[in-house]
Amino acid sequence: MSRSYHLDGHLPADHLLSPQAAFARLPFHVRQFTDYSPLDLWETDTRRLPRSLARLRRRARDFADRVLAPAAMELDLAPHLPAGEVHPLVADILVRAGREGFLSYFLPAPIGSMPPDRAFHSPVWQSCLVIEEFSRVCGGLMLLLSAHHLGCMPLVLSGSPRLILGQLRPIYRSCLNGDPHLVAFAITEPDAGSDVEDGHGAARYKPGLVASPVPGGFRLNGRKQFISGGDICRSLTVFAALEGEGMESWTCFHVDSRSPGFRVIRTELKMGMRASGAAELEFSDVFVPADRVVGKLRGGWAINRATLNFSRIPVASMGVGFAEAATRIAAEFACSYELGGKTLVNYQDVQLHLATMLAETRALRSLVWQEARHAWRPRQLMASGCKFHATDRAQHICEMAMDLLAGHGSLHEARIEKLFRDLRLTRIFEGTNQINRLAVIEDWQDSLMNMVPSDSQGPGNSGA
Ligand SMILES: Cc1cc2nc3c(=O)[nH]c(=O)nc-3n(C[C@H](O)[C@H](O)[C@H](O)COP(=O)(O)OP(=O)(O)OC[C@H]3O[C@@H](n4cnc5c(N)ncnc54)[C@H](O)[C@@H]3O)c2cc1C
Description:
Blueprint: H1 19-24, H2 28-31, H3 41-48, H4 51-77, H5 88-99, H6 123-137, H7 139-157, H8 161-176, E1 183-186, H9 199-202, E2 209-214, E3 217-228, E4 235-242, E5 251-256, E6 262-267, E7 278-289, E8 293-294, H10 300-336, E9 338-339, E10 342-343, H11 348-373, H12 380-405, H13 416-426, H14 433-449
Parallel strand pairs: 1-4, 2-4
Antiparallel strand pairs: 2-3, 3-7, 4-5, 5-8, 6-7, 9-10
Helix pairs in contact: 4-5, 4-6, 5-8, 6-7, 6-10, 6-11, 7-10, 10-11, 10-12, 10-13, 11-12, 12-13, 12-14
Bound molecules: flavin-adenine dinucleotide.
């Protein structure tokens, strides 16, 4: 049956001049080169993925809708808990995520839970698909679950079978058995956010967490700040400088959070992603056995930078998930809100607004999937460029939704104000978007230097 309803300024689908009616009159074989199927866009994108990734995307969406979405708004409004207390909804979600393999999918079975047919695709791409779906329903729960993969990444990147089989595999097993062992990633210090993510700043920085060699291992002293999941993790990958040395001595340690001397000072009352705790951590003579050094002594800076290259494309996918949700919220509002005797979507400037949001969201997804597809060896220029662009543009798309919802958008139940607060944080963590722009230039600088004209009388020098 043909549809006869239509929006103002457009023809109904059964009108002779509509593309659907025109294409329907084409010969069968010519029609094969046209597409006006009513298939939903999410479904269209999913079908374009390799089969194993399409399955993962469907599973992630199902988990997000079934488990995360029902808890999202309640956790956003829940009172800020003292360090050490876990909201029962969070505890339940962690168990379910662990059992369903969402805390162990970064490595193939039998170490992790990635099925063999997915092992042919970049784990970064897999992570992007999951994170996009989780972000779509709740930024806080997404961060709660994905910060764990960031924490595990140094163990993966150590490339050490001893660490992967001896430390990471038991972590993954525990998660799969319904006893979630979360791992946090700790680089930020009270005096250093960007300085531990950017070589230029690090070269001048005096380390705030120091490891002193003692018989059998090291003792750690100092603090870390803003550590996602630091309040509930069972272990952490922590970066510290060796006593008396600078940042070039940074070494990664896998620390048990039950170690004497380790203390969660507090979790921050932050603007968004409130289901995930950002903790300040104190290390007072925390003993770490020598076999829990991750990678080489003084090899921590490389592991840190490599981890960030792996994680920044997934952070970009958070932007895609938020942009998708903002576009949907705006479209639902436009289709239901009455103004001046007609539904908002019938105003053509509103249609232009929605079309821009849709196209921008799809452009971001194309960028992220394109970079993620090839990210077996993620390169800094691509990872950082993707991170700052996707999260900056997602914020713009979110603002477009807020423009459309106007006063209604300021209400908690409209969901867009939560999304706005959650999304804003993606432009700060994993390096501020300014630092990520500098990371692009850092990687690009050799090529940039080669662009200096050989006669050195280029435009930049013309006034000299
Ligand atoms: C929700 C959340 C979760 C987080 N989770 C974690 C985590 O799990 N683990 C972890 O280790 N950290 C985490 N962080 C910390 C985060 O990575 C840092 O906040 C971030 O790197 C910025 O550091 P900063 O806040 O100290 O800002 P600063 O580094 O002090 O920056 C202040 C300003 O100076 C600018 N700036 C700095 N250097 C330069 C420069 N060279 N040139 C120009 N401008 C510059 C910055 O862009 C910014 O505008 C988290 C933060 C948040 C908000």
